[in-house]
Amino acid sequence: MRFLFSRRWVLFFISVVAMAYGASLLGQWQFHRLDDKRVENKIVARNLDAAPVPVKALLAVGKAVNAQDEWRRVTATGTWDDAHTIVLKYQTNAEGSPGIDVATPLVTIDGPAVIVDRGWMSTDNSGGGRPKTPAPTTGKVTVTGWVRVNATGGASKVSQLQTRALSSEEIAKVLGYPVYGGFLDLSDQSPPPVKRLGHIELPDDTSEGPHFFYGLQWWFFGALAVFGFAFLVYDEWRRAHPRR
Known about the structure:
By secondary structure, the chain is of the alpha/beta class. The chain contains three helices and eight strands. The mean pLDDT is about 90.
């Protein structure tokens, strides 16, 4: 077995150890993500089942939404500001059809507005021009919606009342009045709208994602590297000791 102390085999051994160790860490990382996903699912399930509360109980002007409150339901009463309706571009429904989401500020009777994603409508998703959106109900309305956390990054920038991701912070820059942090995905409205838009898809609080199988996959790769090294060592030894 002296060949194992040669430079080539020592470097080979170090490489295999590094690969196996890296695969082990990546596998542990995937299982940690699985644990995080399970905790997140419990929070989502609890929030989806919680009774609605007034919007000001969870949202505040100029403050980010608490991540623990996402997918809670809130109620708000006010009037729609259709002049500042925002088009959320490049959205698809459950069947994969192209379209947009229509988000409109609801100026509440308490003063601040809350951004409400009223739902999905079919378009060609060309992105060339701003599509015509259905007008919301006039007069005072009461809405119930799911609390959502603002999007971040360049996709949330608003241009010509269009964006690729909703952020009340960015939308507030084009409005002339206070806006609650976060936004709502519309659940119900009273009185009902003249034209109903496609319902917002709720998260699946039972899906754990691919993390478990990804974790096993990384550990399998690590074990395969060790087994392969052991086999090559045996093969090298067998070549050095042929049967007579």
